[in-house]
Design brief:
about 190 residues, alpha+beta
């Protein structure tokens, strides 16, 4: 009896998935302006959007350091522990030319935000969780200015909107087999 029920449930889910995917014109990528997500148009309320409002109002000021730029100030403002650091040795970022096995990208995170830092990089990379929109990607220029500005970076979606994220902007973890310079030779699962 259970086997028949699971079979019927599987068929129903499969049919439902086909109906949903049918509106995407053969692509598994959901367009950013699709009414289901309105990724670009819908206002966001994530930790970075809130932090930017505090910076703009003068309520918070991010300090800048020569060695790490705004990294430490961003981690403090977002309550991300330095101890959360994970190092990524492969060139799997748009800042790939600056990443190498001897110069890894550092990722820091809490339950709502991930921050990527590449020593000598042009920007700090951020992925923040919005309760309605999902993951929103930002960068923060590593140049000293009076009021730093987080910018949405949809170019991150070249990797972060794929089959690994079920066609919507999101995070994923993947293992790669890098060569001696850090360039991925091939990926093992997503």
């Amino acid at each position: 009896m259970c086997k028949g029920l699971f079979t019927k449930l599987g068929i129903a889910l499969g049919a439902g998935s086909l109906v949903l995917l049918g509106g995407l014109g053969g692509s598994y990528i959901v367009p950013l302006d699709h009414e289901a997500i309105q990724y670009v148009k819908h206002p966001v309320d994530d930790p970075i959007a809130r932090l930017q409002k505090q910076i703009d109002s003068g309520q918070i000021r991010l300090s800048y350091e020569d060695e790490h730029g705004y990294l430490k100030a961003v981690l403090r403002a977002l309550e991300i522990p330095v101890e959360s650091q994970v190092l990524v040795f492969s060139k799997t970022s748009f800042q790939a030319p600056k990443i190498a096995p001897r110069m890894p990208r550092a990722l820091y995170y809490n339950d709502r935000v991930s921050v990527g830092f590449v020593r000598g990089g042009d920007v700090v990379e951020i992925a923040a969780q919005d309760p309605k929109q999902g993951i929103i990607f930002y960068t923060l220029d590593q140049e000293r200015v009076l009021k730093p500005r987080f910018e949405r970076r949809d170019s991150c979606l070249q990797c972060h909107q794929s089959a690994a994220t079920l066609g919507v902007p999101g995070l994923f973890v993947s293992s790669v087999f890098p060569d001696s310079t850090g360039m991925p030779l091939f990926q093992n699962g997503t």
